[in-house]
Amino acid sequence: MSTRVLTGITTTGTPHLGNYAGAIRPAIQASRQPGIDGFYFMADYHALIKCDDPARVARSRLELAATWLAAGLDTERVTFYRQSDIPEIPELCWLLTCVTAKGLMNRAHAYKASVDQNAAKGVDPDDGITMGLFSYPILMAADILLFNAHKVPVGRDQIQHLEMARDIAQRFNHLYGREYFVLPEVVIEEEVATLPGLDGRKMSKSYNNTIPLFEGGAAALRAAVMRIVTDSRQPGEPKDAEASHLYTLYRAFSTPAESAAFRAQLEEGLGWGDAKQALCERIERDLAPMRERYQDLIANPGRIEEILQAGAQKARKLATPFIAELREAVGLRTLGAAQATGKAARKSGKSARFVSFRDDDGRFRFRLLAADGQELLRSAGFDNPKEAGALMQRLQAGAADSLRADGLAYAAVLDGEPVAHGPAAADAAQRDALIEQTRQALAALGG
Ligand code: TRP
């Protein structure tokens, strides 16, 4: 069974070394593993929460897309898209907003930090806080739950948001009576570098201590590296490698053997100027070929747009049927169908039903149960719940033609493939009766 891994990056700034080593590089490496179904997106709706400068949001989307592609993301293999190209995300966000306790959002760290800052300033607690900031975790939950991601690699600051996504998913599943959503797991990769910025604090656009990845070319990279804060030890004096951000940065771009050699040089007294030079050269070895691809892409935004449109299409293939199922779940249904189902149910006084579940292997299956609970069909296992959901809908819609006898048992066959099996009967007559009962149950469900 493949594992769906999903992560997004907010498009508010120019990608820096920290974004690359901490998020983009590990995501690309993971996406090359067998059995990984990668979903990578640009969180541009989230960007609007933090940034009201349209030019900056627009530029950041372009730069970030070009960065993912230049860094080697294989968009044939993964699904790569912009959040704002998937209208099902805000639609799901609303469905989730309606089941999310306000109290849960009150506890969000980012919101609480803003309230605390306001308190410290002596202004109104909600000063400058938008509903976007307050509901930020719900939009993030929608990003994740829409695609039923199993694993979500993020930085430590996002752990609480993942917990909230699980809470919200559970609440929805519970209210609407089945496991619509997979509960996503947070992945904090210990191996992955959290890079220090120029001043030694975590590299972050909010601290203004970043080293640009591609923008400004090799010169800008070099200029930033030269500004890394070091201690005052002179050339010839032994340096404490472990305590130096320079060494941490070097390690993030080199093999264990290379970093051991660099460390030995520092301990032998390599001057900081030469150390910075060595760091630049090491980083450049990795980045120079990517930067060329980056510049080529930035010069051809139309090409990036095409790739993103194709990615959105791929993502929506899953999102569109799933949101239809969720709308149905909450009662946003086509009126004709609702009436017919109601009528059929009234006539028999009780009704057959589909139930879906996840088996021990983690595969998604469904069962069709008769009104009295007897199993009429049990599906094959599917890798994702939407596949199972779509087949349920097709069986419901085109019921009459799908059932085939199979020895003393029977199967529901779609596109020539058996997708679900009925129980074995004692004899052919009993089998035919079961087939007829199944046909009627499906017809009643389909209205
Ligand atoms: N909130 C994340 C951040 O700031 C970005 C993000 C938005 C995200 N939606 C997501 C990350 C969904 C993972 C999954 O880093």
Characterization of this structure:
The chain is α/β, with parallel strands linked by helices and 447 residues long. The protein has three domains: 3-190 and 300-330, Rossmann fold; 205-294, Tyrosyl-Transfer RNA Synthetase (Orthogonal Bundle), CATH 1.10.240.10; 353-446, PH-domain like, CATH 2.30.29. It is built from 17 helices and eleven strands. Residues 340-349 have low confidence and may be disordered. It binds tryptophan (TRP). Residues 6-8, 10, 43, 46, 140, 143-144, 152, 154, 158 line the site of tryptophan (TRP).
Would you spell out the secondary-structure blueprint of this structure?
Blueprint: E1 3-10, H1 17-31, E2 36-43, H2 44-50, H3 54-70, E3 79-82, H4 88-97, H5 102-106, H6 109-121, H7 131-145, E4 151-153, H8 159-176, E5 185-187, H9 217-226, H10 245-252, H11 256-267, H12 272-298, H13 301-330, H14 335-348, E6 353-358, E7 364-369, E8 375-379, H15 385-397, H16 399-402, E9 403-406, E10 409-414, E11 417-422, H17 428-446
Parallel strand pairs: 1-2, 2-3, 4-5
Antiparallel strand pairs: 6-7, 7-8, 8-11, 9-10, 10-11
The chain binds tryptophan.
GO molecular function: ATP binding; tryptophan-tRNA ligase activity
Catalytic activity: tRNA(Trp) + L-tryptophan + ATP = L-tryptophyl-tRNA(Trp) + AMP + diphosphate + H(+)
Binding site for L-tryptophan: 143
In terms of DSSP E residues, the strand content is 5-15%
Gyration radius over CA = 27 Å
Which series of helices and strands comes N to C?
A: EHEHHEHHHHEHEHHHHHHEEEHHEEEH
User: In this structure, how is the largest beta sheet organized?
Assistant: 6 strands, antiparallel
Let me know the average pLDDT.
92
CATH topology of the largest domain: Rossmann fold
**Low-pLDDT regions:** 340-349
In the sheet with the most strands, the strands line up as 6-7-8-11-10-9
Number of strand elements: 11
- Shape descriptor reads elongated
Subunit structure: Homodimer.
Catalytic activity: tRNA(Trp) + L-tryptophan + ATP = L-tryptophyl-tRNA(Trp) + AMP + diphosphate + H(+)
Subcellular location: Cytoplasm
GO biological process, one term: tryptophanyl-tRNA aminoacylation
